[in-house]
């Protein structure tokens, strides 16, 4: 049985990404972050809508529009429309994300 | 901000189902179970594949084929192919499910 909260024995700093389901129309991924932040000046600008849930830990997203900061705690989830530019400002060392990318 | 672990103030016994995303090709749902079990003799027999994750609590599924029992703890997830008959044998009072149904 696979577990969403399981962490690999050795995990480097940064992000560990795992595709759980890749189907026509959507991709479901699990991401383990360990104190990760997007590189300075980097913005995600995605062609697909993204539903994102933080399953464990806490994190902060920054949206370019209005310089909006969004703090997430374990369980928080939101929809990020395609081309809504955003970045990960910080994550705790125990952050687990679940993301679903799909055509808008 | 919506939270996957949040529970309504008053929750009846049984199941509380909430559609998070309904798109062409898939449906993402959150289900709060509180000591719920499928009715006696009832089997789910679904037209679509289902990815199911237990985010909190614990639960037991029963698959008709081989009378296979599957115990789930928080974080466990699995794929249930379409028409694989199964039922929920029991859930703890604090169970939170996340399910993704999609065309096979």
Q: If you had to describe this structure to a student in words, what would you say it looks like?
A:
Two copies of one chain form a homodimer. Chain A is an all-beta fold and 104 residues long. In chain A, 0% of the residues lie in helices and 58% in strands. In chain A, the strands form two sheets. A five-stranded antiparallel sheet of chain A has the order 2-3-9-4-7, with no helix packed on it. In chain A, a hairpin with a 2-residue loop joins strand 2 and strand 3. Chain A is globular, with a radius of gyration of 13 Å. The N and C termini of chain A lie far apart (32 Å). The model of chain A has no long low-confidence stretch (mean pLDDT 94). Chains A and B meet through strand 1, strand 2, strand 4, strand 6 and strand 7 of A and strand 1, strand 2, strand 4, strand 6 and strand 7 of B. Strand 7 of chain A pairs antiparallel with strand 1 of chain B, so a sheet runs across the interface.
